[in-house]
Amino acid sequence: MDLFVSIFTATIIAATPLILAALGELIVEKSGVLNLGIEGMMLIGAAFGVWAHFAGLPMFLAVVIAVLAGMASSLLFGVLALTFMTNQYAAGLALAIFGAGVSAFIGRGFGSTPVEAIQPIDIPGLSNIPVIGEMFFHYDPLVYFSFVMFGAVSWFLYQTKAGLTLRAIGESPDSAHAIGFHVIRIRYLAVMFGGGMAGLGGAYLSLVYTPLWVENMTAGRGWIALALVVFSAWRPKRVVLGAWLFGGMTILQLQGQAMGLAIPSEVLSSLPYLATIIVLVLISQNRQAMALDFPVSLAQPFRPKG
């Protein structure tokens, strides 16, 4: 039971940065914009979070700065893709490369100096319940925040007028513009939200999960988050389930290495990525269901007329 609880809690923690980044990208893509730069924005958030921490700022402000850094980097993509209407694929890839370079520059002086990680919080009366308390009520604040954001994003997309407007813009920006919606403005806000969430996911890696700065520490999680959004058919619930799957496979491969299984470590390290992609591809085989949530104008440039 102790091993099960340990794997369960470690899975939830490992999935948190993916949930944060993927939910942000989900909003971006629902607006009809494709930002491939999640990896770069997560790295920038991770680096600036550590920088703020070592600058002596409180941990809360370090997290806020990481979010703002992610938003600022997303604005670079927004200017290129939304204002100058450059190819969104190229702009996103450029942002991923740019983020890797900027984060390496920001973090060059940190080495592997440990960070005083954000600690779990105990919920009075609940954290002490045997087994259940450890499994559900003994996490750091950002894990709980990821649950809140899942509910908030689901509610926003499907229960609010603003969410309906966002989805309408993703379906037909010309029609949305014709009835008076500011398509570019709304897409900018969506892109900034996605950047902030990616920066927060990066900050979680450097301030909680590791916790220290390592160059390219995202290790492809930005690309996995991007894949989660697409293969989950742009549905928040499937995004979270996919993130938990990846987190679970990550923890299981670490357990396998610790147990000394006679399998090359490189093979074990690749299993989370391989298993996540295979399962999500199988989930997405229902093309009719995917078509219901696919943003028709995804990655297509829009120039307001009139």
UniProtKB/TrEMBL annotation:
<feature type="transmembrane region" description="Helical">
    <location>
        <begin position="262"/>
        <end position="283"/>
    </location>
</feature>
<protein>
    <submittedName>
        <fullName>ABC transporter permease</fullName>
    </submittedName>
</protein>
<feature type="transmembrane region" description="Helical">
    <location>
        <begin position="218"/>
        <end position="234"/>
    </location>
</feature>
<feature type="transmembrane region" description="Helical">
    <location>
        <begin position="142"/>
        <end position="158"/>
    </location>
</feature>
<dbReference type="Pfam" id="PF02653">
    <property type="entry name" value="BPD_transp_2"/>
</dbReference>
<feature type="transmembrane region" description="Helical">
    <location>
        <begin position="33"/>
        <end position="54"/>
    </location>
</feature>
<feature type="transmembrane region" description="Helical">
    <location>
        <begin position="239"/>
        <end position="256"/>
    </location>
</feature>
<dbReference type="InterPro" id="IPR001851">
    <property type="entry name" value="ABC_transp_permease"/>
</dbReference>
<feature type="transmembrane region" description="Helical">
    <location>
        <begin position="6"/>
        <end position="26"/>
    </location>
</feature>
<keyword id="KW-0472">Membrane</keyword>
<keyword id="KW-0812">Transmembrane</keyword>
<feature type="transmembrane region" description="Helical">
    <location>
        <begin position="188"/>
        <end position="212"/>
    </location>
</feature>
<keyword id="KW-1133">Transmembrane helix</keyword>
<feature type="transmembrane region" description="Helical">
    <location>
        <begin position="89"/>
        <end position="106"/>
    </location>
</feature>
<keyword id="KW-1003">Cell membrane</keyword>
<feature type="transmembrane region" description="Helical">
    <location>
        <begin position="60"/>
        <end position="82"/>
    </location>
</feature>
